[in-house]
């Protein structure tokens, strides 16, 4: 039986960054990825998705993302091309598609049951992200709605909604960007719990990342640093605002077979609802370890599980490293995690 030093679960941006630093640290590792090809969650982004920041600020360790050959920030396809070439450039030890079903604890290692057999490792780093676990709020009547319901995880383009009445639900960046391109072709309403907060027009995703870092470093007694959920005014959002398409309404109270009922009791017929309501950590494979808490997270010290010290986590949100779920933060998260892992790993005889 081969017992690897480290197995990384997930071959997206976090997994690739970890692979680079693990090799640099001299650790024998294996990356198991459930995808059919490179790119992680970027394989599933909508067609017009663009980065908030220039390529140079959204790079993995060792190699800057090349600037795009078109105006504006890199697109989803630019990112996919970069991640694909990154894998090849460093010949990272990735096996795919391999879906990890459960991780269990053994006396001297962790065992990973997968659809391709069992793998074992002294240390496991979970980096499965959130894309495969989209969140939709439990609205009364939602299951009986007869129209289309689509989460932003599976949204591609606005053409399928042309001429329809559409509710775009969610006040974050995905909600703003999808509303911006659905509104010109449909009767669209943007539904948010409160008025969305927009960053100044000349500010991009670099500010969001630095805010995330500042929030993690700031003592609780200090004045909180600004939120990281503020909407970046990318060109499509800027154009939508100029058209007057970014007005919002507060949430409906329930859904019916044909539409929704608003708080004042008014009913509205709706063809489709696009849920831009975020994601939760994809951690079902860790339930057998007994480490997943009621809030759906794993209690960590740094990025190391408190209940199972042979388990580390990266890429799920600020609780696993500032900005760790972003391209911009993946490299820093991986660097800090691998350094801590090396410091915590007893040396073994050659």
SSE blueprint and pairings:
Elements: E1 3-9, H1 13-24, E2 29-32, H2 76-90, E3 94-95, E4 100-105, E5 110-114, E6 117-126, E7 148-151, E8 165-169, H3 173-182, E9 187-191, H4 205-217, H5 235-243, E10 248-249, E11 254-255, E12 259-261, E13 267-269, E14 272-275, E15 300-301, E16 304-305, E17 311-313, H6 327-344
Parallel strand pairs: 1-2, 1-6, 2-3, 6-17, 7-14, 8-9, 8-14, 9-10
Antiparallel strand pairs: 4-5, 5-6, 11-12, 12-13, 15-16
Textual characterization of the structure:
The chain has helices spanning 13-24, 76-90, 173-182, 205-217, 235-243, 327-344, and strands at 3-9, 29-32, 94-95, 100-105, 110-114, 117-126, 148-151, 165-169, 187-191, 248-249, 254-255, 259-261, 267-269, 272-275, 300-301, 304-305, 311-313. With 350 residues, the chain is an alpha/beta fold. The strands form 4 sheets. Strands 1, 2, 3, 4, 5, 6 and 17 form a 7-stranded mixed β-sheet that branches. Strands 7-14-8-9-10 form a 5-stranded parallel β-sheet, with helices on one face. A 3-stranded antiparallel β-sheet has the order 11-12-13, with no helix packed on it. Helix 1 (13-24) runs parallel beside helix 6. It is globular, with a radius of gyration of 21 Å.
């Amino acid at each position: 039986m081969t017992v690897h030093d480290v197995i990384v679960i997930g071959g997206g941006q976090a997994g690739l960054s970890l692979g680079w630093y693990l090799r640099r640290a001299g650790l024998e590792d294996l990356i198991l990825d459930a995808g059919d090809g490179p790119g992680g969650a970027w394989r599933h982004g909508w067609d017009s998705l663009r980065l908030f920041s220039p390529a140079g600020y959204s790079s993995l360790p060792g190699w800057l993302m090349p600037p795009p050959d078109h105006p504006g920030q890199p697109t989803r396809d630019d990112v996919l091309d970069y991640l694909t070439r990154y894998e090849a450039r460093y010949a990272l030890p990735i096996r795919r598609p391999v879906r990890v079903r459960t991780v269990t604890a053994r006396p001297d290692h962790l065992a990973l049951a997968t659809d391709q057999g069992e793998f074992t490792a002294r240390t496991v780093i979970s980096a499965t992200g959130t894309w495969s676990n989209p969140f939709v709020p439990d609205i009364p009547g939602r299951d009986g709605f007869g129209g289309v319901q689509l989460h932003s995880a599976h949204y591609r383009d606005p053409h399928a909604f042309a001429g329809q009445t559409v509710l775009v639900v969610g006040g974050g960046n995905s909600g703003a960007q999808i509303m911006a391109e659905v509104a010109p072709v449909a009767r669209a309403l943007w539904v948010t719990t409160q008025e969305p907060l927009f960053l100044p027009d000349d500010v991009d995703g670099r500010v969001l990342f630095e805010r995330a870092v500042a929030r993690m470093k700031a003592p609780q007694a200090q004045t909180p640093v600004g939120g990281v959920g503020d909407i970046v005014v990318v060109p499509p959002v800027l154009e939508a605002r100029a058209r007057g398409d970014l007005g919002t309404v507060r949430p409906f109270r329930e859904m019916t077979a044909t539409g929704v009922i608003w708080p004042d009791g008014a009913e509205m017929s709706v063809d489709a609802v696009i849920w831009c309501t975020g994601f939760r950590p994809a951690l079902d494979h860790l339930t057998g370890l007994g480490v997943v808490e009621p809030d759906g997270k794993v209690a960590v010290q740094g990025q190391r599980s408190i209940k199972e010290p042979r388990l580390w986590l990266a890429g799920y949100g600020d609780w696993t490293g500032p900005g760790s779920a972003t391209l911009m933060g993946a490299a820093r998260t991986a660097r800090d995690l691998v350094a801590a892992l090396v410091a915590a790993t007893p040396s073994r005889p050659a």
